[in-house]
Amino acid sequence: MSSVTHFPPINEQMDLIKRGAVEIIPEEDLVKKLERSLKENKPLNIKLGCDPTRPDLHLGHTVVLRKLAHFQQLGHLAILIIGDFTGMIGDPSGRNSARPPLSFEEARENGKSYFEQASLILDREKTKIVYNSEWLGKMNFADIIKLASKYTVARMLERDDFTNRYKNGIPISLHEILYPLAQAMDSVAIDSDVELGGTDQKFNLLVGRDIQREFGKEPQVILTMPLLIGIDGVEKMSKSLDNYIGITETPKEIYGKTLSIPDNLIYTYYELATDLPNSQLKEIWKKLNDKEVNPRDLKRSLGRKLVEMYHSKADAENAEAEFDRIFISKGLPDEISDFTIDKEIDILELIVNVGFAPTRSEARRLVIQGGVTLDGEKITDVKQSIKIDKPAILKVGKRNFIRLLKK
Fold it and tell me: What sign for the dihedral angle of Cα 197, 201, 203, 209?
């Protein structure tokens, strides 16, 4: 990696760094680090630990990745730490139970997938990739005892999810308590100047500061980013809640899902999930507060922007045109798969068989909610039987279509 020869002025750097950030702790230390970086013409080490348990990235993951890219743009060194060792521990971070641990091989494979997708946002050539097994895997039991002696159980139980689980009698395994210490050792190993994370990682990042001090290192500054609310407008974006927009999804899916976000999240998505300059963000804010402007137009623009970011401008235009054809002109997608039926079948079984619902209970919910039509006619009876005499289009939800054929 080539050495940096120029950094923007401190005020310009801080303007970009603070965009969308929830907290910078402590901000004055970050200014000092930037001043020293400028004086010595030396980049800061910016750390982001990657969770290898879920390699498929969605827009929620990109919020902190985009902040790491901001530091890259300012000339600093982005260090992605793939948690191949900590992935074998599991981190509860905001959950009521521990994440399932991975095998070393699974963690490594998922880490590769993570980086490939993260490269859609980061400058691949200016990103340093390290695996924390390189130092954590070399620690012996004496090293772990020495590390554990540097932090108290009382301090560890200050972590919100540990506190809640302890109060509610939900078990906390000792290996989970070791997780923040392991993450802190990552900061020690790479001489982290700044560590990034979501607000749910705040405790772990603060532990990193404490442990760096214990090892005679200058403590890192921590920067937390908000957790992006999913397209349901209620919970944070998550694949398990099916309220996500995946960055490797098809243009049609990205565009269609974007149009389903609540109006009150439009600005948040523009700010956290795109790199539009602040001047354009101000214009969007004005339009959102202008009763003459239809929020749907801003969502359409956002949908095009997101597709263009992860695919291409042509894909964005095509996705919008197809959406209009289906939902505005009441047309159909250009390509629809066929499914052959050789006998009469009940609607719930059919929905499961074509892959539009994982279970009959989920299929039942879709029917009850009015999300199922056959050739444009809404199906409301969960016990209805389907018999095909001629080709018919089954539509489930907003974007799932399939052509039913008689065998």
Answer: negative
